[in-house]
Every structure is written in structure tokens, then in C-alpha cells.
């Protein structure tokens, strides 16, 4: 190790190093304003330099052990370089170069999801956080999603979704329901017809057996017909008794008149008088009617 240091400090080596530095071009400094650059290649080179600086600082800011102050300073420096990079990208476009801003990186949360934070923490539009800076106090809350509150639906929101489909008016439009219900409906109709025929046959047998003498021990079928016969006969007898009671009550009922009613002759006279008055009012004048009324009064004629 000592031998190498001696070589580096020898007069010949120092002379060679000095000559090599003299041959090198002077180190150029990046222009403060991107508008001062007139060459597209130079502008692209300065942009690449800024990208390398951003990469180094982003790699450094991943270390959570740097401390809060160092992390905030690094994050500020990265944002400053990003703004400078955007200036050079606009200058490259002005000089006729490609537009690098189309494929710029988006801001993400702690889980890597792209989010839209236009002005977090009031540090200016487009300010971003990188690496461990996202976990700093006051910054983590910017990336946390607020709990979703379930909005209570109003009566209008409930009823505006109700249409003809809700009430089942469109169930048969696709034809599927008709294919499924067709056989089931036909089967139900056949069962109803068979049941009606069976009951009708029992009623006929009951009516026929009402006129005949039915023995008790002829079998189960005879017992069923006998029971049906008794029910039918009993029902007919009950209806007949109810009908006779109603007729008897109507005959026994007397109409009591509390006011005197006119007879047929009185009614005819009143109708004739009414027709006469209608004809007089139609063809006679008011003066004639008054004279007739006065004459009746003078002669003491009531009608």
C-alpha cells in the first residue's frame, strides 16, 4: 500500500497527471436558464445530466435512517430537479426535438397505485414525495384514502330505478319464460279439467242415486256416492225451506201508510191540470194569464 502512495506522489506521475488535465476541456457548467441553449444535442445532454442526478438522489432518499430533516431536503432537491427537467424538455420541443413529457412518471401512493395529488401540503402545484419521504409525519395522511361513507339513498333514488322490468312486464320479451311456463301451464290445465270431470261425474251419480234406493254395504264407491247424494239432497231441501220462508214473510208483511195517498181519479185530474198549465204558459201571454187569475179570484174558483 505504501509503495502505491509513493508512486502517486513521485514527480513523474504528478507531471503526467497535470499534462492530462491540461489537455482536457474545461468543465462546462449547465446553463441556469434553458432558453440560453441553442443546440438540440446540448439541451438533450443537459436533460440526461439532470436525469442522472435525480436517479442518484431518489436512490439515496430510500434510506429511512437519514432522518426527517435530510429526507425533506432531499425531497425538495428532487422536486427542484424535476421542475428544471421540465424546462429543458419544453426547450427540446421548441428546438424541434421529441416530447419527453408524454411519458413522464405518475405519482403513486405507498402501495404503488397511481393517484392524483395536485397540491399536497400546500408546497406548490405538482410537488411530489419519494421513497421514505412518503412516510414522514404529515405526509402519510396525504396518501391515505378517507373511509367511504355509505350515502343514504333518497326516495327519489329508489324509485328512479323502478321501470317496467321491475314489475315483470318485460319477462316474456326474451321468450325463455314462455318456453318454461308453456308445458307447466298445459299440465296444470289438464289437471284442472280432470278434477272438474271427476267432480262432475260424482255429482251426476249423486243426482241419479237420489231417485233410487242405495244400499249401505255395496262398497267404498257406493258409500262415497251415498254421502254425495245426502249432501246434494240436504242442500236442495235447505234452499227450498229458505225460499218458502221468504215467500211467507213477504205475504205476511203489511204496508202501513202514515200519510193519505191520492186515488186514481185524483192523479188523473192533477196530470190534466198540469198539462193545461203547460199549454197556457206556452201559447198564452203574461197579461192573459193575469186576467184569468183575477177572474178566478173574483168568481171564487179554486181550480
Automatic annotation (TrEMBL):
It comes from Populus trichocarpa. InterPro entries: Helix_hairpin_bin_sf (IPR029012), Isy1 (IPR009360), Isy1_sf (IPR037200). One of its GO terms (cellular component) is catalytic step 2 spliceosome. Its main location: nucleus. It is found in: Nucleus. GO terms for biological process: generation of catalytic spliceosome for second transesterification step; mRNA 3'-splice site recognition. Belongs to the ISY1 family. Transmembrane segments: none annotated. The lineage of its organism: Eukaryota, Viridiplantae, Streptophyta, Embryophyta, Tracheophyta. The keyword Nucleus applies. This is Pre-mRNA-splicing factor ISY1 homolog. Keywords: Nucleus.
Amino acid at each position: 500500500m505504501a509503495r502505491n502512495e509513493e508512486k502517486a506522489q513521485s514527480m513523474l506521475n504528478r507531471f503526467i497527471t497535470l499534462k492530462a488535465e491540461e489537455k482536457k476541456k474545461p468543465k462546462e457548467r449547465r446553463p441556469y436558464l434553458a432558453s440560453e441553449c441553442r443546440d438540440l444535442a446540448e439541451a438533450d445532454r443537459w436533460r440526461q445530466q439532470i436525469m442522472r442526478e435525480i436517479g442518484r438522489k431518489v436512490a439515496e432518499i430510500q434510506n429511512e435512517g437519514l432522518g426527517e430533516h435530510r429526507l425533506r431536503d432531499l425531497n425538495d432537491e428532487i422536486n427542484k430537479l424535476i421542475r428544471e427537467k421540465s424546462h429543458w424538455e419544453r426547450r427540446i420541443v421548441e428546438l424541434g426535438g421529441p416530447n419527453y413529457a408524454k411519458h413522464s412518471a405518475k405519482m403513486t401512493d405507498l402501495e404503488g397505485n397511481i393517484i392524483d395529488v395536485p397540491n399536497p401540503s400546500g408546497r406548490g402545484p405538482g410537488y411530489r414525495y419519494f421513497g421514505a419521504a412518503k412516510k414522514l409525519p404529515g405526509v402519510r395522511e396525504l396518501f391515505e384514502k378517507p373511509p367511504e361513507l355509505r350515502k343514504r339513498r333518497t326516495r327519489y333514488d329508489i324509485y328512479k330505478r323502478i321501470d317496467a322490468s321491475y314489475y315483470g312486464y318485460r319477462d316474456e320479451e326474451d321468450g325463455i319464460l314462455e318456453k318454461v311456463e308453456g308445458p307447466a301451464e298445459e299440465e296444470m290445465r289438464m289437471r284442472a279439467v280432470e278434477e272438474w270431470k271427476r267432480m262432475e261425474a260424482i255429482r251426476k251419480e249423486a243426482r241419479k242415486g237420489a231417485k233410487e234406493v242405495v244400499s249401505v254395504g255395496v262398497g267404498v264407491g257406493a258409500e262415497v256416492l251415498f254421502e254425495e247424494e245426502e249432501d246434494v239432497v240436504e242442500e236442495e231441501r235447505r234452499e227450498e225451506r229458505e225460499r218458502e220462508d221468504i215467500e211467507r214473510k213477504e205475504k205476511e208483511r203489511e204496508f202501513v201508510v202514515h200519510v193519505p195517498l191520492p186515488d186514481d181519479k185524483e192523479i188523473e185530474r192533477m196530470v190534466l191540470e198540469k198539462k193545461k198549465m203547460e199549454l197556457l204558459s206556452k201559447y198564452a201571454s203574461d197579461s192573459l194569464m193575469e186576467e184569468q187569475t183575477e177572474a178566478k179570484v173574483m168568481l171564487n174558483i179554486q181550480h
